[in-house]
Design brief:
159 residues
Length: 159
């Protein structure tokens, strides 16, 4: 994790994960909270899946980002689809809690997509790294030509 963007996304993942823990805990204790989980059992399973995905994302594994996107896409995607269709039909039926849930679901989709895009962008940088300390020597053809011309003029005697 050399990039600032990766650290930032990992922090967002952890903050959203802690928020989902609080949501699951409040639902289990039957306390009032401004967001309720769609499926309590699935929410708890997702908490453990995201923990595993976080470790894989920190290790820069593409599998972790794909599992994270797939899990959150299936969980939050259905909620987004139903609430957006309700908004398009009749927006007066939705309450403030529904809009808050829609916002949380959008955040739940945006973070995995951002993580996947960050890993895809970093894969390109890993395939073609740039190192200022050595590129001047290894990728400088004019220097190579100069070195070859100089090497041809050496006349050493062999004994």
């Amino acid at each position: 994790m050399r990039n600032f963007s990766t650290w930032l996304l990992a922090c967002f993942i952890v903050m959203f994960w802690v928020f989902r823990i609080i949501v699951a805990l409040m639902a289990q204790m039957r306390q009032e909270f401004f967001v309720t989980p769609f499926n309590e059992t699935m929410e708890i399973i997702l908490l453990f899946v995201v923990l595993l995905c976080l470790v894989l994302i920190v290790k820069r594994k593409m599998v972790g980002a794909l599992i994270y996107l797939l899990a959150y896409g299936m969980y939050f995607g259905t909620d987004i689809a139903t609430k957006v269709s309700l908004v398009l039909e009749d927006a007066s039926q939705l309450t403030a809690a529904d809009y808050t849930g829609l916002l949380i679901s959008l955040i739940g989709i945006i973070i995995p997509v951002a993580v996947l895009l960050d890993l895809l962008a970093d894969k390109n940088r890993k395939a073609h790294p740039k190192d200022k300390k050595t590129d001047w020597f290894y990728k400088n053809e004019a220097y190579d030509r100069k070195l070859d011309d100089r090497a041809d003029k050496n006349n050493y005697r062999t004994l």
